[in-house]
Amino acid sequence: MQCCRCGVELTDENWPTYLRNRKGYKGRTYPEYICANCLSKRRLDWCNVNRKELNQYYRDRYPDHKDSYDSSRRKHEARLKLEVLTHYSTKSYPVCADLYHLHLPNDPFLTDIDSLSLDLIKGGHRRSGIPYGSVLYEKLKKEGYPKGWQVLCFNCQWKKRRINRELFEKNPTP
Ligand SMILES: [Zn+2]
Ligand SMILES: [Zn+2]
Predict the structure, then answer these.
(1) Ligand number nearest to the C-alpha of 11
(2) Which of 47, 60, 133, 163 is 20 to 30 A from 30 (CA-CA)?
(3) 49 alpha carbon to ligand 1 midpoint, in Å?
(4) pTM of the model
């Protein structure tokens, strides 16, 4: 048995049970020959085609489902931040790059996710028009994590800003 889209051999791993047991007329089963990979692609294609209607549907539902919408958005944003910050950290978990050796070994702010954020290494994030927060994380993930970013805690961000300003005042370049 092969997937009707990509032609891959259907196995227990790539062919979900509910697809091989699709119920049809008079309880007959109608297996759907599509692999899990192509299924999720087909769903995504459908969502993209119907994006406008979908967005409207969710907008209309929002007032009645505010709490669950908001909490799932917050969960999504927290997961996204964790993922992106982990990627730009020097370790396998989000950690401040500690450029100026301000942190003691067991400093909780070294790894506290709420204190950490992304920093544009060459500076000028504030003036560049590049977005912040979730919008930035979404963008970087979509672009395959381009280089030029590092993870800093708020203290180190301030320190960097101060040092850069002093350097700039000593040696202003056009
Ligand atoms: Zn397939
Ligand atoms: Zn720091």
Answers:
(1) 1
(2) 47
(3) 20
(4) 0.72
